[in-house]
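Notebook, student rotation project (T.W.).
Task set for the rotation: take a protein with a known small-molecule partner, predict the structure of the complex, and write up what can be learned from the model alone. Partner molecule chosen: flavin mononucleotide. Sequence and SMILES entered below by T.W., checked by me.
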Amino acid sequence: MYIEPYHNFILSFKTVLKNIKARGAFTVSIADAAHIVEADYFGVESGNRVADKLKNSGLTASRSEMVDAPVINEFPLCLECEFVEYQDSQYGCGVIGKVVNVTADESVMVGDKVDMSLVNAIAFDPYTHGYYKVTERVGEAFRDGVAMKKE
Ligand SMILES: Cc1cc2nc3c(=O)[nH]c(=O)nc-3n(C[C@H](O)[C@H](O)[C@H](O)COP(=O)(O)O)c2cc1C
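Predicted structure of the complex:
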C-alpha cells in the first residue's frame, strides 16, 4: 500500500497505521466499476469524522478467516495481508505486507484462477482525477517480448 506524501493524507493515515500495527494485519479490497460511488466515498470521508463509515456506505464486511482485518463483501477481490513493516521517507510512506490469502467472488473465477477481465476493477488517475475500468487482457507477461530478444 503506497501513501502519497500529502500532509492531510498523512494525518488521516496515522489512525489507519495505528490500527494496522495493533492488528498486525490489513486487507486491500479491489473495488469494481459497479461500486464507484462507495469506493470514492471511502476516499472522501474520514472515519475520524463519522461514527460508522462502512455502515454509511451501505456496504458490509466480514472478518477475514486468515488475518485480523475486514473483507468488504461487495467488492470482488480482496488481498489479505500480514503487516511486515512501515516505511517512511521524503518521497512518501508505505506499508509493506505479506499477502497470505486472496478471496474472490465466484463470479470472477474461471476454474481455480481469478480472471481479471471479469473483475471490472477500477484504477484511479491522480492527474485528471478519473476512475477507469481495468478490463481487457492485452498480452502475455514474460512471453510477448521474448521474440525481440537477441541470442
Ligand atoms: C481518489 C482518491 C485517492 C486518494 N489517494 C490517497 C493516497 O494515495 N494516499 C492517501 O493517504 N490518501 C488518499 N486519499 C485520501 C484518503 O482516502 C482519505 O484521507 C480518507 O478520507 C481517509 O479515510 P480515514 O480517515 O477513514 O482513514 C485518496 C482519496 C481519494 C478519493
